[in-house]
Amino acid sequence: MLSKNSLPVADLIIQPKNTTDAQTQKIEIDFDNTHEAYKSKDNIELLRSLLVFKLCTFDFLVDKNKELMDLSKKVFGQRLFERLMKMTFYGQFVAGEDHNSIKPLIHKNQAFGVGSVLDYSVEEDLTQEEAEKKEMEQHYVSCCFLTLGVDHREKKYKAHRQFGDRRGGVVSARTYFYADEAKCDNQMETFLNCIKASGGASVDGFSAIKMTALGRPQFLLQFSEVLVKWRRFFNLLAAQQGKSGMDALEQKLELEQLKESLTQLGVGNKDDIENWFTGEKLGPSGTIDLLDWNSLINDRTSISNLLVIPNVETGQLEPLLRKFTVEEEKQMKRMLQRVDVLAKHAVENGVRLMVDAEQTYFQPAISRLTLEMQRIFNREKPIIFNTYQCYLKEAYDNVSVDMELSRREGWYFGAKLVRGAYMYQERSRAEEIGYEDPINPDYEATNRMYHKCLEFVLEEINHNRKANVMVASHNEDTVKFTLEKMNQMGLSPTENKVYFGQLLGMCDQISFPLGQAGFPVYKYVPYGPVNEVIPYLSRRALENRGFMKGSQRERSLLWKELKRRLLNGQILYKPVY
């Protein structure tokens, strides 16, 4: 597994950057070494993996997996069905039913160098009709508060019945539907229990949360539209100064010219506009960049007053909604309070919090709320991590803008880079409703975007140790790319600045060799009662179909290790730790 002379990988990385040794030594982890990859698994576990992965290649079984599980439950009864699931799909992809039952697996993985990101993966088992009804009901309430006359809302940021079931076309992310505030409180309690379980199970764990579980998703739609239109208004002003087509942070608007443009557009009188750009909002050398521009929105402290958009045709700020009722205002504030409670509990329990990415029509608001948490809680160390989906065309701009904000304000930047979970749904929705497809054109473009974002963050880590990144990927080439860059930059795994992440039950040939070589690597660990994680297991089958059909590598490595053990007389092999 290790490179020449059998030196530990960590030792190779921490050589001084400018020495001959550091330039000639290379990190070489052997991802074909099945002994290292599977030493934490007994033979029964290897056979289970082979069975599950093979079943995932049969289209009929995968397409009808939900129906087949329901039928099995009726035929075998609840007790036998649960035992069957624990011997197969549940046992492969889920750690256990509650925070106590998952501890043995977490401790075993930890003994072999692999940490955990805990995720309570219980979902409502709704029909498509029930999901659509819930989504449209919470949208209808907000529609009652639309401005009289012209509706200035964009199609992308409205709920649409044909996409009301947000689970459609999603293969690896759980989905929450709003019912009422009490349910949001219950879901917050679930996240709190997950944070406590993570703190109790390990000393360096993560816990995952989803913003749509903590409040009415319609608020996220509305806030996202405000943020996107505000940024679009900035782009219009940049184009007027001949600065279109640049990277986000390269667009620096001349302040005096900007004031003149805003006055001419009738956005406000000269004195009001002058007051906008005073004190800390004034950019360097008399210019305003996107971060300065975004900070203006902080002035609109009342939530209802925040929901206004600049009309790029008239230059006027138009209300997106009428004033919220007192109850609506309270609901929005409760959502923010729930987020704050979770962040504080993460700090108290020594757990890092990962905010999952969601659909593009929610994501601007989710990212903004996550940034606000980072500004508060990431002052001394990285506690809050935002997730960036690199299949998005704007992924690099999002990473670079957020990174620059952390740099200016002096807090720890925390990012999880993923390729993305909503591609099919996003593409279908954009085409059906009629707006620009936000997804990169093909898989190779997504790979290039992922590596571009990753290299940018690694460069920042190299120059400023306040950045942190989790490389959440099952792509072996991406992992090798990361190791090579770390080697070139002299980044040591012992600094805990670069983490790796894979899903439980997948790609052990990547996770465990990394962990045993001293790299911080984590399994995304779902848990919950058998019946209540069936929606999650259903998606795992769907995702693995494409994964296993595209490559037989993992199955071949599993067979290789089984054969090696049989030839060495290790029929009853048990991991020692």
TrEMBL record:
Q: Which Pfam families match?
A: Pro_dh
Q: What are its GO cellular component terms?
A: mitochondrial matrix
Which cofactors is this protein said to need?
Answer: FAD
Q: Name one GO biological process term.
A: L-proline catabolic process to L-glutamate
Q: Which reaction does it catalyse?
A: L-proline + a quinone = (S)-1-pyrroline-5-carboxylate + a quinol + H(+)
Query: Which residue numbers delimit the Proline dehydrogenase domain?
Result: 307-546
Keywords in UniProt for this one? Acetylation, FAD, Flavoprotein, Mitochondrion, Oxidoreductase, Proline metabolism, Transit peptide
The record ties this protein, via InterPro entries, to: FAD-linked_oxidoreductase-like, Proline_DH_dom, Proline_oxidase
User: Which Gene Ontology molecular function entries are recorded, alphabetically?
Assistant: FAD binding; proline dehydrogenase activity
UniProt pathway annotation: Amino-acid degradation; L-proline degradation into L-glutamate; L-glutamate from L-proline: step 1/2
Q: What is its EC number?
A: 1.5.5.2
Q: Which locations, inside or outside the cell, does it occupy?
A: Mitochondrion matrix
Has UniProt tagged this entry with the keyword Oxidoreductase?
yes
User: According to the UniProt record, what class of enzyme is this?
Assistant: oxidoreductase
This chain's function reads:
Converts proline to delta-1-pyrroline-5-carboxylate.
Query: Which family, according to the similarity comment?
Result: Belongs to the proline oxidase family.
Q: What is this protein called?
A: Proline dehydrogenase
Q: Which organism is it from?
A: Oncorhynchus kisutch
